Amino acid sequence: MFHGSMVALVTPMHADGTLDEKSLQQLVEFHVENGTDAIIAVGTTGESATLDHEEHCLVIHQVVEFSAGRIPVIAGTGANSTTEAIDLTRCAMEAGADACLLVTPYYNKPTQEGLYQHFRAVAEAVPVPQILYNVPGRTACDMLPETIERLSLISNIIGIKEATGDLERGREILRRCGDKLDLYSGDDSTAMELILQGAKGDISVTANVAPRAMHKMCKAALAGDRSGAEALNQPLEDLHRDLFVESNPIPVKWALHEMGLVSSGIRLPLTPLADNYHDTVRRALRKAGVVE
Q1: Does some domain include residue 271?
Q2: In total, how many domains does the chain have?
Q3: What residues have CB less than 8 Å from 83, skipping those under 6 apart?
Q4: 122: helix, coil or strand?
Q5: Which domain holds residue 79?
Q6: Does the predicted model carry a pTM greater than 0.70?
């Protein structure tokens, strides 16, 4: 249903941490103009953990409004409470989101059966298309391929964002799920290779700052053009790495502010990028041709 470079969009904030609607609209236009294939609003890169329910739904509404049907909008609606995930997913559907992205419940460390029951409950409660999201490095919860395979049989669960960076894990999901579920990379460093092996795209942090380059790279990889994809990916490799010198989205929000696209705000407990990393991120932006 979705393919290519899908940006895990940051949520712009003023210096005092309040939401910045003007910059959000500017970011949506930036991605439409530069060929991004879909926008993920209020995912984990969008600081979903520190937005309250009203703000979360507001940002989804705004991204849908600003995109005006020109680009698919996928709303991040995961939570470690099943009831909260259902409420957020229903809000996103009512706002007009094309699909929802649901991260595994964090901190409470459910069993594999608990994960299955959680995602099944959300899918049964809200008929919008849903994409699972596995990122054990952030959640302390790893959804295994056999659980993903069980969930792939639920009709409105359409995909999985696999962010382990483990290519063998990705291959196993492809073997188990086949055409029942679309696989998306959630790890920019290994995204090109995973797409070449059968994934449908990349839900990307790098695409925040290099949307056109990421769109072209994903397009080449989807076409099976390894040499072309490698040539396009090579200038982006430092970004893939250095946008994680501190916890995401700290570096990418700093980079977007450096590019003049957003205000400087980020919410505690996250803090602005440490001074000693500024040159590191700047060098990666230059190598990618994003800034001079």
Answers
A1: no
A2: 1
A3: none
A4: helix
A5: 4-225
A6: yes
Catalytic residues: 133, 161
Query: Is residue 132 situated within a structural domain?
Result: yes
In one letter, which amino acid is 92? A
State the CATH number of the domain containing residue 38.
3.20.20.70
Q: How confident is the model at residue 251 (pLDDT cuts 50, 70, 90)?
A: very high
- Asked if residue 245 belongs to a domain, the reply is no
Which letter does DSSP use for residue 96 in this model?
T
At 107-133, the pLDDT tens digits run 999 999 999 999 999 999 999 999 999
In a domain, 115, yes or no: yes
Helical spans, DSSP H, in the chain: 21-33, 53-67, 82-95, 112-125, 136-139, 145-151, 167-177, 188-196, 211-222, 226-233, 237-242, 250-258, 278-287
- Give the list of residues 6+ apart from residue 48 with CB closer than 8 angstroms, or none: 42, 56, 76, 78
**pLDDT (tens digit per residue) in 217-232:** 999 999 999 999 999 9
**Mean pLDDT taken over the chain:** 97
Q: Count the Cβ atoms, other than its own, within 10 Å of residue 156.
A: 14
